[in-house]
Amino acid sequence: KSLSRSSVRSRMSLKPPKAYNSLQKGALIWDPKPLQVKKIFEALKKGLNEYLEAHQAELDYLSGRHKDTKRNSRLAFYYDLDKQIRSVERYIRKLEFHISKVEELYEAYCIQCRLRDGATNMKQAFSLSPATKASRESLVELYRNVQECTEDMCFIEGALEVHLGEFHVKMKGLVGFARLCPGDQYEVFVRLGRQKWRLRGKIETDDSQTWDEEEKIFIPNLHEKFEIKVTELRGLATILVGVVTCDSTSFFSTKPQAIVVDITELGTIKLRLEVLW
């Protein structure tokens, strides 16, 4: 077990795990969430494969033009196409390495998860058996194994987050029909874990909207969802319009994702965002 732990960490010199203290000091360790990690992994792999297919199609198209240009001997255009092809080929190799690294991390994560589940089941079985010196020693060893597997899972989750990329979130405005009147001012607060985006907007006389910021970059997180809060500003007072949460698994896509969320329960005010991964 100690050899497998050291090999797991030696292969993953990417990002330290979330800060946590030893359980021996009575502190809480960050709790891995295998089901959530599986959802993110599947969405991430699907998105990466979409990018790979798109660039492979681009490479095939450029290669076809490259052959036609070579026959027509337009040298300047030929060399320009050749540079484009080399650039796309490099990016495809980069994507393939990215996918293989993500798969390697998740495979290691699943192994540690199964080891932890096995040690947990054995610990429960030993705890129900008659208390003897041997059973107590086995319980201590199993408890240590559960701790080590949990730490490794936390470490791998931190390493996997490095490969999630960036979300570019654009503000597209509020939709509220009769609820939005000229002169109304709103504040939108978007949170993803510790990342925050606070922006203010105003409804103009021609029903257009002006916002003090239009785009924000968020780093995806394995465990946190987007939390969006909208408040209406009336002088010195603020009135809460609504709070919603939004899962990020659907954002791992090659195409910009248009997000329309109901801020009020009846959907009388909606928020429109665009997310580009």
Helical segment count:
4
Strand order within the widest sheet?
4-3-2-6-7
Poorly predicted tracts of residues: 1-7, 13-29
Helix content: 40-55%
How many structural domains does the protein architecture include?
A: 2
Instruction: Using the CA coordinates, give the radius of gyration.
Output: 26 Å
Describe the structure.
The chain has helices at residues 2-10, 34-72, 75-128, 133-161; strands at residues 167-175, 185-192, 195-203, 209-211, 215-218, 226-234, 237-246, 257-262, 270-276. The protein is an alpha+beta fold. β2 (185-192) and β3 (195-203) form a beta hairpin. α2 (34-72) packs antiparallel against α3 (75-128) and α3 (75-128) packs antiparallel against α4. The two termini are 38 Å apart. Residues 2-277 form the FAM65 N-terminal domain.
Short description:
The chain has 277 residues and is of the alpha+beta class.
Strand and helix layout:
Layout: H1 2-10, H2 34-72, H3 75-128, H4 133-161, E1 167-175, E2 185-192, E3 195-203, E4 209-211, E5 215-218, E6 226-234, E7 237-246, E8 257-262, E9 270-276
Record keyword descriptors for this entry.
RIPR3 protein, RIPOR3, 277 residues, FAM65_N, Immunoglobulin-like, disordered N terminus, single chain
